[in-house]
Amino acid sequence: MEHFQEESLNEFLVEFLEETLELFTDGITNKLVGCFNQNNNTVDDTADDETGDVVLIRVYGNKTDLLIDRKKETENIRLLHRYGYAPTLYATFRNGLAYEFVPGVTLTPDSCREERVWRLVAKRMAQMHKVRDESVGDCRQPMLPEKIDQFLKLVPQVFSDPAKHSRISQIFPSTDDLRRDFNGLYDRLSQLNSPTVFCHNDLLLGNVIYCADRDQVTFIDYEYAAYNHQAFDIGNHFTEFAGIDEIDYDRYPSKEFQLRWLRVYLEEFNGHENCTDSDVQRLYVQVNQFALASHFLWAVWALIQAEHSTIDFDFIQ
Fold first, then answer.
1. Where, residue-wise, is CATH 3.30.200.20 in the chain?
2. β-pairing, 208-211 with 105-106?
3. Nearest-angstrom CA–CA distance, 154 and 148
4. What kind and span of H or E run contains 123?
5. Which of 31, 138, 219, 265 has a 20 to 30 A CA-CA distance from 255?
6. pLDDT above 60 (res 52)
7. Which pTM does this prediction carry?
8. Is the CATH number 3.30.200.20 carried by domain 9-41+51-101?
9. Where does CATH 3.90.1200.10 sit in the chain?
């Protein structure tokens, strides 16, 4: 499918009859469309036999190229596919990409707490954190400060919608104040010495596919994958337990749950079962402090989306 690389996704899709396309999700950043064989116009999330007849098309959200290095994203997918952690990338387009259908269901605020599921997630994250991206050589620097700086520069000083601008001005500090706040936070976080590993960096529940038949989980959407602090990736995932559409911070995992999750993670990450209570406790402290940085990053991201996104979602709320 190399000949599709420079083609517009719209031009590619018109080659298919309308009944062969199905909108799978209407996310808050991108849109995901299933394209399947006309002789098999339904998708069974658990069947293995027919998944080869299905291709997923991800259509990029408006102006998301301001936030995301699309070339690096495709490199990430290919890198992780070589490790067996990502689906096959079939084609890239100016405004999207096509990749292998992954059977299963996305996690929910309930399923992410089920022991058979969260153990798989903890182990897969630990495995991903051991991936080596040789393309960066020895320059394995955490992406967090650079990404925050990039995002803050993209926040409009004046939003194009006057009502939105007024609302945001009443809720959020100025970008200068936000920058000072982050610098103070990051100074403190840096003292925790969280290791730099290859992270997903956006492991919300919708980016985890659980297949009960295969007893496995697959992470998808590697738009923000990069080297970063280990504790950020875990803390970010824990914050996502609260949900997106109906946020409930009472769902944030308890200390008892986190300690169990983190022990499974460390056993996989270290390659042995001899992690100590102090090892788990140290990671627990790091994770919950880096969760603050996760909130900060996605709050600034939301300000940019509030200006540019065409998706019907209240990013300011």
1. 9-41+51-101
2. antiparallel
3. 10
4. helix 115-128
5. 219
6. no
7. 0.88
8. yes
9. 103-309
> Both tokens of residue 315?
């990013």
DSSP string, 36-69: E-TT--S--SS-STTGGGEEEEEEPPTTGGGT--
Which CATH code for domain 103-309? 3.90.1200.10
User: 214-272: per-residue pLDDT in tens?
Assistant: 999 999 999 999 999 999 999 999 999 999 878 899 999 999 999 999 999 999 999 98
Give the containing element (helix H, strand E) for 103.
Answer: none
Q: What is the DSSP string of 275-307?
A: --HHHHHHHHHHHHHHHHHHHHHHHHHHHHHHH
**Token pair recorded at residue 182:** 């982050």
Helix (H) or strand (E) holding 257: helix 255-270
pLDDT band for position 117 (50/70/90)? very high
Under 8 Å between Cβ of 200 and 233: yes
Alpha carbon 201 to its chain centroid, in Å, reads: 6
The tokens for 222 are 């590697």
